[in-house]
Amino acid sequence: MTSPGLLSSSFVLHPIKSRKLFLPWNPSLPRPRISLCSAEPNSLRKAASGGGRERRNPMDGGRTRGGGPGGRSPRRSSYGTSRRSSIKKSFAQEQVVFTKPVAEDPVVAIIGGGVAGLVCALTLEERGIRSTVFDTGVHGLGGRMATRVIDPKPLVFDHAAQFLTVSDSRFQKLVDRWFEKGLVREWKGLIVELEAGGHTTLLPYSAKRYVGIKGMRPLMDSIICENNLVNIVRPCWISNLEPFNGTWRLTEREEQHGQFDAIVIAHNGKCANRLLSTSGLPLLTKQMKTLELSSVWALLAAFEDPLPIAENEDFGSFEGAFVKGVQSLSWMANNSSKLFPLDSGIPQCWTFFSTAAYGKQNKVPQENIPNATAEKVKDDILEGVESALGLSQGSLQKPFYTRLQLWGAALPTNTPGVPCIFDPKGRAGICGDWLLGSSVEAAALSGMSLAHHMADYFQTGGTQSDEFAIGLNNSFHAIDGHDIGQFPGLQPEKQSEQQACIAV
């Protein structure tokens, strides 16, 4: 009989029926005989035994195990299938505990195809481990490494990550690979600090700045093109995680997407919180819900003629500017000169970002932005451009193309300061830039760290749980940086050199 204490917890967890061990992917390998004890809470560690045939359905690179009599799908009596979104999230979760040894050829599900998720998949492949990346992107992979191309001109905009810097040798190796393939180049354009009224301050930095030659997104595409052990599923919104017979089963609105030996959460925000809230991973859920994210508006605008920015005889006109003293504007960059420095006479494609404070004040559901809000934000940002450049109100030329986007979960404002989070009992981890800061480099290093950590864990057979726990209880602290993120290594060469002011 179920104890009163269990009935008052978040879930009533069914006993597990023991099943035959999963057949290895290589049928020539012998099938070991090991008693099954998987994915069960501590209070139900002793499960009732039962029968059942086993079958394989290689769905999206995962494992589907355990069919019913006659090969039919298993009934909902197995552990985890009773977990539904209708269960109140306020209840405490029961910790999932996997005790069955990890398969000899583990397969990992990675939910999120941004920098962290893709680099995690790449690193897992380097360790000989297969993975499937599930991403919601309709236009492509990469998350905030997003590039928008508008035909037939074409108009090209980097509308999230604007450039990247390097301060770690591990990330430098990845950037060097991009450089060798002709995907990135050093951005030598002038970046300034622009104050309201058109006053600029030179920012002579020592670190190199890199941009994608054709935008940021091709950098992410290149990671997948060279892999053989990575499967991509998109667009896909994984809506439920449930432990089942020693694995994790993933579903999207009742459609199954396979079973996996471990999972990686490589995205954040409300969708990640909702996904984890009924997963049986309370420690991961707690850390994810502690994360705070800013909201930033992005306006893409194309102009027929160059903006009225005065050129300095020594440095020319700026291509990017951190804006100060303008509530609706924190950054502006000329994509045309940044991406196509040798092309003249082409439309001027600018990316404008609001401040985080403005984004918070004007936040709406990003999936359904009201027309009135969109018009207001666009007008406010363009007025902010006029203020920053010292132009009279209404004098800025009207762009012939605009597109507005709200990054509702733009950048982290706090961090636990760990490279990754991993719960070995539940065989689940988290990677993302927010674990180390708010930069492209932080995202890549987090993905690498989690992949190596999980690979080392797999080598033990998954039997040494406690020593592989990381980041589950670390406290958070605030993140410093610009409203558009951090740029490691981007420090002024000499403080005195920042005092050189130029009148625009």
Automatic annotation (TrEMBL):
SUPFAM superfamilies: FAD/NAD(P)-binding domain (SSF51905). Residues 34-87 are annotated as: Disordered. This is FAD/NAD(P)-binding oxidoreductase family protein. It comes from Canna indica.
